[in-house]
Amino acid sequence: MKKFKKSTAIVLSVIIGLVLVVGMVLSFVPIRVGAKKFVSFSGAMNISSDITGGIYGEYQITSKDPTKAELVQSMQIIQDVLDESGYKNINIYAIGKSKIRVEVSYPTGDDTYEGVYSLLSGVPAGQFKLTSSQEIKEDTIILEGHKHVKKIKVFTNNDTKNMSIIFNEEGEKVYEELCKKTSTIYLNLGEYNQSISVAGATDFSQLSLQNADWDNLIALEQKIKFGCMSLSLDADTAKINTMSARLSAGESSSNPFDGSFFSSTAYVVVFSTLAVVTALIMVLFAVKFGFYALLMLATLMFNIFAFLGVMCIIPSVEFGLSTIASLTIGIALIYTFAFSFASEVKTQYNLGKSLSASLEHAYKKQIPAVVSSNVMLFIASLVMFFFAFGELSSAVLVFTMCAFLSIVTNLLIVPLFIKVCISFDGVGTKLFMLKKRSAFAEIENNKEEE
Amino acid sequence: MKTAKKYPLLISIIVSCVLVVTSLFILGFFGINLGTSLAGGSQFEITLSNDADTKEYTAKVKEVVANKGYIVDSAFVEDKYKAGDEDLEFTDRCLVVSIASKNISADDAKDIRNALAEKLEIDVKDISAIEKTTSALKAKSVLFLGIAVAIIVVCLFAFGWLRYSIFAGLSFILAYLHNIILFLSMMILTRVQLNLISLASIVVLTLVMTAVLIVIYEKYREQSRLKTAEKQTISQRMIACEKTAVKPFGIIAGAIVVFALMMLFAPVAMVRFASLGMILALLVTAYTTLIVGPASYVALLEIRNDYLKAIVSRNDSVNKEIQKKIKTASKKAEEKKNAEAKAEKTESQEVKPAPQKKAGTKKTTTSSKSKTSKKK
Predict the structure, then answer these.
(1) Can you give the pLDDT at residue A279?
(2) Region of B93 on the Ramachandran plot (φ > 0 left; ψ -120 to 50 alpha; else beta)
(3) Sheet harboring A184-189: ordered strands across?
(4) B207 and A377 in contact by Cβ < 8 A?
(5) Are A267 and A246 in contact (CB under 8 A)?
(6) Among the listed ranges A197-206, A410-419, B113-122, B179-188, which one has the minimum average pLDDT value?
(7) Between A296 and A263, the higher pLDDT residue
(8) Do residue A377 and residue B141 have CB atoms under 8 angstroms apart?
(9) Which DSSP state fits A323?
């Protein structure tokens, strides 16, 4: 491992210091520029409704004697629509056969309570139907969402915003009958009604709708999807409000203006454990390798900044108990390789090699292990993320991020920081708590260096 | 010598099989203890007065429910408003209690409600009926998880095969599946509640296990290239590599232990169950990483070596070649021996007679050399 020139090392250490300071500020301090307010990375983190207060929607089922299959189908549709709207880790379940309950985390960052409220209040949209007449009579042909719709997709084509309602085999037949009977069909969705001209329709596999406004089209898509639920939910008796942390023991409040709304014992335990584990790892480094712990602290600051920054880009990740457990294991993973590297440097130095040779040898030796194990972890956890559900997918995504950070930290950041450090006289041996060796070893060392 | 130890593969296979079979029996009779996040449970609401101390209420609810033999999974407060109108109308403030059991009999439910009303000094009407909750988890989600495991297993096998050998690939598959199956068996045997948190722990820990195995096999690969490796058996080499490679991973184990121990202090049953699940996951993963994974790789490599030896001894053409090689080797050894004897003679004639002891040792060494060359 070659040293930098002293001047280069000074410039680099100033740049690294600046990046870390700016990173920490962006991570933890909200900034106000004029009228605009930028939330810190940590402030924009989504915390699961398990450990802090959240919002719930409780809907009364009006369908008579619903089956389990109907309950599960309806809950799946709600979950899918909320998933697409960025609420990945929602808690959804049926209470008896009379209610469906949805719990989502309290919005952070740019999301607002009103946004979540309007989304949840749209759930009991009414059943989606396409009919041949405005009023339902005996001879009215009815295409029903939960029976005949296969898929709904929205897309843009040459500046037009489109939505396709794709029918299943039975749906195609009903739609064909509808089109043959009348040139105007009616879209029924609770209180929402719209007439659609189908004159000259030849493709009976789907119904295409257009809208000039993208937001309106998305809202309609959501409504139609909710309308495809097998069960009908009562909009008038729907209850939507805040709730305290689910994993609390009555100590948290349901009032968002109360401090205990955003906290719970589980929240305190989990975040303090994360801090304790990280601190213990740093203490271990300090005891074993001395100043190397400071270097690790710098890499930790870099990792926090990078991690929180990426988590802001991926808004679907929610920090619940399992996500933080996986983050703890991920942090330990990153520093396991850093520990292994420092141990190898010490071993090589004790064998009589020079510091730079020891560093070079340890670095080369660790590359295959770091690359192969972390790349494999990255791929495996990414696969798991695509197939996992709910909280599990968040936990695995966080671990994927840690595997990536482990590669970056151990192959790029740590060597860079070490190179900068050893460029200053006398820092190298102090960095790893290396003891002075015998005169013979020093002579051998000098020979080797010559 | 410590490195002379062998992997207790047979014992570990027996132990794992016994645990899995026993758990299957228990699964047949009692099923698996699934948490509310996976299988639903029961839930009821208590309407609170505005000045009610929710913490005290929760403690009393837990006590009453526990007296009936059930566990309160979580308890949280919520306000009830009527939605849909422009002005929201506040209706109630409730304590929602979730119980980790679906099978609460009607009599038990009635008793719990009456006991609660008495303990909390409220009207029974303020306590809602205890209703079953159904989780949204579908068979499809479990199937998808299975597909993910299958894809990961294929990836691991391909990686192991390309990087090390087909046997490493096979050992990856074995270790990965072993870890998941044994964890589920342990959850069934210990009756610890399986919830999403413990499921996430085992998923992540199984991934960590593959990382540790990769580091061990990487070290083994590196050591096998050294000349000193010829003196060691496969098992000895693997144990030596495992010892050095596994040490730093103690940091991960320590982190999990600290996390699990801290979670034990949380006042919520579900969190405590998750902590126990994490500890079980750690134990199972350590067992698979330290014994099952490397031991299966060693066993497969040894079987391969034995198989090759057997082929060599059965194949006549190969035997003839080997006999030729042995003959030339023994000739060379004899020539060497003669040359050494000559040199010894000239040495003793030119300088002075060597002491008896040394001569003796020299003789023995030369004889042992010739023996080894003959063996070769």
Answers:
(1) 92
(2) beta
(3) A142-144, A128-131, A184-189, A192-197
(4) yes
(5) no
(6) A197-206
(7) A296
(8) no
(9) H
Whose structure tokens read 């003679």? B345
- Cα(B234)–Cα(B305) distance, integer angstroms: 10
CA separation for the pair B280, B293 (Å, rounded): 18
The whole-angstrom separation of Cα A130 and Cα A143 is 5
Asked if A372's CB is within 8 angstroms of B163's CB, the reply is yes
Measure Cα distances from B226 to A361, B64, B219, B223, B240 in Å.
Answer: 16, 68, 11, 5, 14
ipTM: 0.81
What string of H, E and C letters represents the secondary structure of chain B? CHHHCCCCHHHHHHHHHHHHHHHHHHHHHHCCCECHHHHCEEEEEEECCCCCCHHHHHHHHHHHHHHCCCCEEEEEEEEEEECCCCCCEEEEEEEEEEECCCCCCHHHHHHHHHHHHHHHCCCHHHECCCEEEEECCCHHHHHHHHHHHHHHHHHHHHHHHHHCCHHHHHHHHHHHHHHHHHHHHHHHHHCCCECHHHHHHHHHHHHHHHHHHHHHHHHHHHHHCCHHHHHCCHHHHHHHHHHHHHHHHHHHHHHHHHHHHHHCCCCCHHHHHHHHHHHHHHHHHHHHHHHHHHHHHHHHHHHHHHHHHHHHHHCHHHHHHHHHHHHHHHHHHHHHHHHHHHHHHHHHHHCCCCCHHHHHHHHHHHHHHHHHHHHC
Residue A80 scores a pLDDT above 50: yes
Nearest CA in chain A to B72: A249
**What is the pLDDT averaged over residues B122-142?**
82
Tokens for B198, please give them. 């413990």
List, for residues B4-61, the tens digit of each pLDDT value. 567 777 888 888 899 889 988 888 888 888 888 788 889 898 888 777 788 888 888 9
**B45-74 residues touching A, CB cutoff 8 A:** 54-59, 62, 74
How far apart (Å, rounded) are the C-alpha atoms in residues B222 and A368?
Answer: 10
- Phi (first) and psi of residue B101, to 5 degrees: -155, 135
Look at the block and give the residue holding tokens 């703890």: A328
- Model pLDDT, residue B2: 44
DSSP three-state, residue A115? helix
CB contacts, 8 Å: A246 with chain B: 74, 76, 98
Give dist(CA B350, CA A396) in Å, integer. Answer: 80
Supply the mean pLDDT for chain B.
Answer: 81
Measured CA to CA, the distance from residue B169 to residue B173 in angstroms comes to: 7
Asked whether the beta carbons of residue A328 and residue B255 sit closer than 8 angstroms, the reply is: yes
Residue A318's pLDDT band, with cuts at 50, 70 and 90, is confident
| Contact present, A107 and A54 (Cβ < 8 Å) | no
Would the pLDDT of B357 be above 50?
no
Closest by Cα among A19, A40, A47, A29 to A327: A47
Q: Please tell me which of the candidates B135, B218, B258 has its beta carbon nearest to residue A368.
A: B218
* pLDDT > 80? residue B144: yes
CB-CB neighbors (< 8 A) of A335 in chain B: 251
Q: Judge: A250–B77 Cβ closer than 8 Å, yes or no.
A: yes
